[in-house]
Each structure stands twice: as C-alpha cells, then as structure tokens.
C-alpha cells in the first residue's frame, strides 16, 4: 500500500503543482496529456491520442464601472472580449427579458433568470427548454454585453459559460445587485481571447478480447489545480494501469482519460462517444473515477445500466471494504457515456464531495491540502481486486 501511495503522490504533484490548471486546449493541458500518455506507453499499453477541435480561452481580467464607480466583477468562462459603455437595462424574469429593449445596451439579468447555471447551447445530454429560451432571447435582443448576478451573495457563480455564446458576458456576486439596480450607465471591459486549437483524449489498451474500461477526466477548470477534480482520479488510474499490466486476463484493459469534462461542450466525451462507443458489445463493464480522495470521507459507488445480478455481485465484493459505500446514482459525469450506450457502469467518488461543490470545486482551493492519499490508494487496490474477483466469477 505504501508504494502505491508514493506513486499517487508523485503523479498528483506533477499534475497539480508542476503542471497546474489543465483547462482543455491550454498548453498545460497538452503537457498533462503527454505526461499521462508517456506513462502508459512505458507500462506497455498501446496508446492513442484521440484529437478534437476546441478553444484555448485566455482571460486577462475584467473591469466594471457603474455610474463612474468601480464594482467587483469576474469574466464568465469562455466569454468573448469587449470594451463597452452605455445604458444599463434589467430583467428578472423571462417575461421581462422578452419585453426589454436591450439592443446595444448592457443587460443585467438576475433573479429567476440566474437561479442556476444555464446549459451551453451545444449541450445535448441535458438542456432544459427554460435555459434555451433565456439564451435565445438574449441573442435576439442583441445587447452589447450581459452581466449576470449570482444566486450566492459572496460567490460570483457564472450563469453563462459557453464558448458558442458570442455576446460578451460577465458575472458579479449577489450582494452587488442593489448597486446595479440603482445604476444608469456602465462601462465594461473584458480582456479575453478565444484561440482555435486542438486537444486530445488519452486511450490506452492492454491485452485482447472484450474490454473492461476505467475512465477519469484529466482536464480542469481554468483557475484550479484540480486535485480532487480530477487529478486524484487520473493518478489512481495511472497507478492501477501499472498493476493491471502485470496480470494476464481473458479481457482487454482500457484506460480512458477524458479531456473536456470541465469544458463547456464536453468535446472529448462527444468525440469518444462518436468514435469509440459505436460497438457497445465490445465492452463488458466500465468504471469512472471522479472526485475520490477527499479527507474525512469514504468513497462511494453507484450503478448505471447494470443488471440486478451485476449489482449483487459487486455489492457482495464491496461489503468487505469498510471505506466504500453504495450511494444513489448521480446522472452527471463521464460514466453516463457508457451507461447511455447500454454498458454496465460504476461511478466512484468521495461520499462527501457535494459539501465542496459551491466553495471549493473549480477554485484554487481544490489543491493537494484537501487530499487523503490513503483513500486514493485504497481505491486502486479496490479496483484491482474487483477485476480479479469478477474474472474469477
């Protein structure tokens, strides 16, 4: 176990400290992909880099003035650049937005329109009509820029994060809503850039026969080292791959490091689905690892597209591992790619990960200080033993 933990620490320090934030399309993301690919090649895996087009988004900051007074503001991820000034207009509901004359004005949306992040235009897995209606109305109104007001008072939660939304967009903390509503004129500068580039998934295979797939996403949001989300999952699979390469099985082992789970349109996942999941019968089952290794938390597992017999077999195996517990399905994450294709899938994450979602995940706070390497090492052993147990049965 100690050697496993040492390997995990080494991989995570490379990913989180030497490389850092690994946003899809960035130079750091390419470095992470190359590091993982070279690691897997040295272990004897056949490695493919599955490329796809994307945006390398650069953010150099934002400035906002309301009636000449500076107000704290943040750029919405993937926002187009702007340097605008003009009249402020406001909408709290979709009806108000439809009746607004926002053309060439700075449009502030809040309340019902900002009660949750809106799905990107190209998101096909889940995109509520309500979200689509808000985006359509904004595009029809053609404001010079959009300012969204967070539903949290002290956190500027971005409501629009979409590289296909071409109206410049900024976000402010909820506590600034009264200041905005009193304003008449605004000046907004977003110093951003969208560069067309390519990125790649890492797909590594070992052996012959039907596949058992182990996946994690290697990318992060632009401003986080992504220790739990998801260097822990990536490191676990790199160490697991080493252990699996030492055993002979009757099936093919597949390691998939998705690139784009934290990118607005999930391009890596879409590419994998369209190019690699065309014959679901090639797969026996799949495991996705995302968010493991949180301090003071057990590791949870959940089932998707699994038969009752499969679940019973897995639970019978897991019952002897005290640090693992079953949880209800969460239908967001890369495991849904496999489940959607009818492939039995298991998702592993930290049981208490939801407590970090609003204040830690996708921020600089998601760093190595909140990681329990012992939990990650246990996950590696758990998956290694699961493969052996299921093979025997």
UniProtKB/TrEMBL annotation:
The keyword Chaperone does not apply. Pfam families: Peptidase_M28. GO terms for biological process: proteolysis. Keywords: Aminopeptidase, Hydrolase, Protease. The keyword Cell membrane does not apply. InterPro entries: M28_fam, Peptidase_M28. One of its GO terms (molecular function) is aminopeptidase activity. Transmembrane segments: none annotated. Residues 201-378 form the Peptidase M28 domain. Coiled coil: none annotated. This is Aminopeptidase.
């Amino acid at each position: 176990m100690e050697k496993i933990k040492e390997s995990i620490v080494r991989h995570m320090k490379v990913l989180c400290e030497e490389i850092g934030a690994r946003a899809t399309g960035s130079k750091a993301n390419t470095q992470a992909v190359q590091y993982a690919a070279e690691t897997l090649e040295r272990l004897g895996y056949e490695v493919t880099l599955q490329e796809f087009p994307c945006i390398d988004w650069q953010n150099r900051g934002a400035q906002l003035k309301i009636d000449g007074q500076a107000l704290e503001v943040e750029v919405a991820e993937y926002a187009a650049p702007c340097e605008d000034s003009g009249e402020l207009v406001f909408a709290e509901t979709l009806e108000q937005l439809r009746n607004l004359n926002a053309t060439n004005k700075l449009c502030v949306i809040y309340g019902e329109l900002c009660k949750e992040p809106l799905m990107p235009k190209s998101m096909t897995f889940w995109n509520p009509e309500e979200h689509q209606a808000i985006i359509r109305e904004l595009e029809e109104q053609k404001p010079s820029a959009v300012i969204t007001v967070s539903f949290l008072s002290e956190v500027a939660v971005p409501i629009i994060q979409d590289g296909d939304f071409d109206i410049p967009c900024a976000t402010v903390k909820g506590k600034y809503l009264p200041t905005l509503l009193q304003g008449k004129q605004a000046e907004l500068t977003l110093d951003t850039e969208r560069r067309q580039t390519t990125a790649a998934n890492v797909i590594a295979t070992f052996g012959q026969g039907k596949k058992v797939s182990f996946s994690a996403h290697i990318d992060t949001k632009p401003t986080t080292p992504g220790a739990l989300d998801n260097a822990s999952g990536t490191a676990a699979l790199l160490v697991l791959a080493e252990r699996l390469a030492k055993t002979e099985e009757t099936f093919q082992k597949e390691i998939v490091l998705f690139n784009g789970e934290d990118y607005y349109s999930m391009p890596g996942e879409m590419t994998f689905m369209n190019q690699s999941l065309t014959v679901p019968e090639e797969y026996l089952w799949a495991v996705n690892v995302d968010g493991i290794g949180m301090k003071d938390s057990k590791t949870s597992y959940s089932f998707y597209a699994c038969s009752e017999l499969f679940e019973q077999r897995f639970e019978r195996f897991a019952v002897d591992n005290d640090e693992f517990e079953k949880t209800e399905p969460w239908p967001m994450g890369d495991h849904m790619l496999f489940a959607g294709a009818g492939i039995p899938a298991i998702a592993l994450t930290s049981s208490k990960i939801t407590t970090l979602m609003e204040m830690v995940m996708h921020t600089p706070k998601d760093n190595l200080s909140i990681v329990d390497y012992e939990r990650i090492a246990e996950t590696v052993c758990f998956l290694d033993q699961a493969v052996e147990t299921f093979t025997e049965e």
